[in-house]
Amino acid sequence: MEKFVLGIVHRIDKDTSGLLIVAKNDKAHIHLSEQIKNHEVKKTYLALVRGAMKENKATVDMPIARSEKDRTKMAVSRRGKNAITHITVLEKFEHYTLVEAIIETGRTHQIRVHLAEIGYPIVGDFVYSNGKNPFGVQGQMLHSYQLEFVHPTTDKKMSLTADLPEYFQEVLKELKDKEK
Fold first, then answer.
1. I want to staple 140 with a disulfide (CB 3.0 to 4.6 A). Which of 38, 125, 127, 134 is the partner?
2. How far is Cα 40 from Cα 34, in angstroms, rounded to an integer?
3. Domain for residue 88, yes or no?
4. Is residue 1 part of a domain?
5. What is the model's pTM?
């Protein structure tokens, strides 16, 4: 009997909610890994950030490497690997912004590092936002919302979405209620 090892193909950071890709067999794992390597998987995230973003769209193109000051963190660095994040504002609040982030590359902590670097850290991200968590959420308010890829067996284009977790929805409701 053949033994299959489930393989995580698309990882998400600890305390990030939402979708990830897991292959059921080696053939699927290889096929999906190739799509990721060739930037053929569209990865869309939703994040609540501190601060009211001025622009409605932005592309952050800054290389990321392990931080020289703190080896447990990543940082923007000239010696880093290419990292590109496309950001679109979905909703603005007085002191917060709900954004969509689409990543072309998949560097460790990429969205968290890029947003913090441009001055809009993710709410609840204790690593990159000075620990500020006014809503008392567990983990950062970063959600792997949508994945688009070609199915490894059927060759059909797949588009999967995951609803925001309840705590994320509650914080957004609280912010909307304050705006009224």
1. 125
2. 8
3. yes
4. no
5. 0.91
**Is residue 61, in this structure, part of any structural domain at all?**
yes
Range of the domain at 42: 7-179
Encode the chain (180 residues) as per-residue pLDDT tens digits. Answer: 444 456 788 778 888 999 998 888 889 989 998 998 898 999 999 999 999 999 999 999 999 999 999 989 999 999 999 999 999 999 999 999 999 999 998 899 999 999 999 999 999 998 998 877 789 888 899 999 999 999 999 999 999 999 999 999 999 999 999 877
- What amino acid positions are annotated as catalytic residues? 13
